[in-house]
Amino acid sequence: MPTAQNELAFTDAMADILRLPDQTLALAYLYLNKYLRFHRTSQSSDPLDSYTLSLATLSLAAKSTESPRRLSSILLPAYALLYRPSTPASSSLAIPSPKYDALRATLVQAELILLRILGFELRLPSPLDFLQRYLERAMEDVDRGGEDYDAWEKEAREEYGVIDGVMDTRMGKACRTEVVEACKDYQLANLFPTRAVALGVVYTVLEDRELRIEMQPREWVKDVGSGKVDHEDFEEVVEILKNRRLHLLNHGK
Description:
By secondary structure, the chain is mainly α. The protein has 13 helices and no strands.
């Protein structure tokens, strides 16, 4: 049985175990970084350990994205993921039990603390809100004149194995994965507009796939971002994304 080595690995694994969509996981990381920012800029003590905080962010994000999970469905796999039992039959978390009741009460309290820090505002803007639009705009010159697969009937798409939309393509999936990784970053989550993060992700994914952008970066940002993304923000986001990826590669992650 695997065990989580840190809180980020724990959060990622729990999102997979709970079958949560990328939108939910990205929002959970935004909550996490809002919480961290609050405690960095205030004099209050930090009442939550990192793993309890991870569960609280996932639970609230799941509710906000209309993907709610029962607390028991969260706590049972979380306990197994954190503690490798030497004797599973006697050491696993049982329902009902005093241990489960205590953990459940702790998670409910953690959600309330997080809610207060967020000002009870759960619908935060996310880079995923703009990702599809920017990816479609970035690729529209290539798509123009080709087959309009989006216009096909569902039955025809299924018959010929046509992927439903751009976000289900390999490039779309790569962009979604990169956005979730970006939401883990304190600076990207707190200091930059979500539009700039989304556009920076599209740009770096295109570069990674060795797809050359013929336009000058400033013109490309204005065109694809519809004039709503500051070029300096975009440049800083791209630099952070590249440095973050280099750091992960150097540390074997």
